[in-house]
Amino acid sequence: MAAPAETGGRDLRLERVTKRFGTFVAVDDLSLTIPSGSFFALLGPSGCGKTTTLRMVAGLEEPTAGTILIGDDDVTNAKPYKRPVNTVFQSYALFPHLDIFENVAFGLRRRGGKQIKAQVDEALELVELGGMARRKPAQLSGGQQQRVALARAIVNRPAVLLLDEPLGALDLKLRRQMQIELKRIQTEVGLTFVHVTHDQEEAMTMADTIAVMNGGHVEQMGGPADLYESPQTTFVANFLGQSNLIRAAVSGKSGDDLVLEVHGQKVAMPAARRASGTDDLLIGVRPEKIQLAQPGESTEGFGSNALPGGVVTDASFTGVSTQYLVRMPWGQELMVFAQNLGAAGLLRPGSKVDLHWDPAHTFALDGSLDANAGVAHEGATPVPVG
């Protein structure tokens, strides 16, 4: 395998890019810097502007305003074939009459490239299809065809590789396998990958940095763990994973912690995890951070925050975990994911439970935000917030 491509520090930069379709603003004054050699994901629901952004970088759409640069080169108005960019789409777009070798070689031949065989062989080895060069696309599985499309895109060593929902046509098991493979390939070739997806797991599995898009702008950007553990808005909290958002009010401080009142109960959280300066908050706890205890059961090591008086309303065994809905005394249903360790039996609907978690696993958002932002986009039923 050859050394990773030298991209010469050619960051992809979008400077105040806007795209309007009539009166509809698809992308709204967007500024982004995507470091050279990184795996970057644009994540968001349908209609958030992520695909339009990708198409503007590819040259398939022209910005209404703003500038797109790759390194020091302004490519805002450059033709697609004049840009150091290739795109992999969800549809593989392979030539059915050409074998795999010629599909991958197609772009090299059009450009009058030299050492075509060596470059194609290297690209096919990279995607682990070295022994299939003379097969036709129809003889390959969907996952193998997607690998061919990827080999064809990277064989020219573009400065930026754009991936538009590339795994959407694959079944779940193969999609997860390809997520790992894509990350491996990106690391080996050292190209800048910009991946558009609505699949949060896909983005978190592969990307170094994720930009969560909503309504044509970036809601929050950061590493997967940062976004998941410390969302700054209710949209990000709900769209990236699942969150329990509970109304709370700041009632005081204890050292580095805030003391909060939640429906007559006192809970604590690190003051540094408050994303809002207001005292009326929505506190968030991820479902897997909560532990359930039945009244009278030992809670040693469960965390000092506790909300008593819950009743299990639903229990769904998923293999890895059991997912519970627990109705609290104020009427809100909270989600709890209990890892299946084989140490405890399934709690049945109607079971009385108390909720426990570590204060450090709490985050706090502005209480005036829409608690269901990011939920309704995916067709989920809004959960009442109490």
As a percent range, the share of strand residues is: 25-35%
CATH topology of the largest domain: Rossmann fold
What strand order characterises the main sheet? 6-7-8-3-9-10
Number of strands: 20
User: What do the pLDDT scores average to?
Assistant: 91
Number of helices: 8
Radius of gyration: 24 Å
CATH homology superfamily of the largest domain: P-loop containing nucleotide triphosphate hydrolases
Walk me through what this model shows:
- With about 375 residues, the chain is α+β, with helices and mostly antiparallel strands.
- It folds into two domains: about 10-225, Rossmann fold (3-Layer(aba) Sandwich), CATH 3.40.50.300; about 240-370, Nucleic acid-binding proteins (OB fold (Dihydrolipoamide Acetyltransferase, E2P), Beta Barrel).
- It contains eight helices and 20 strands.
- The protein has helices spanning about 50-60, 100-110, 115-125, 140-155, 170-190, 200-205, 225-230, 235-240; strands at about 10-20, 25-35, 40-45, 65-70, 75, 85-90, 160-165, 190-195, 210-215, 215-220, 245-255, 255-260, 265-270, 280-285, 290-295, 305-315, 320-325, 335-340, 350-355, 365.
- It has a six-stranded mixed sheet with strand order 6-7-8-3-9-10, sandwiched between helices. A five-stranded antiparallel sheet has the order 13-12-11-14-20, with no helix packed on it.
- The longest helix has 18 residues, at about 170-190.
- The termini are far apart.
- The relative contact order is 0.12.
- Residues about 1-10 and about 375-380 have low confidence and may be disordered.
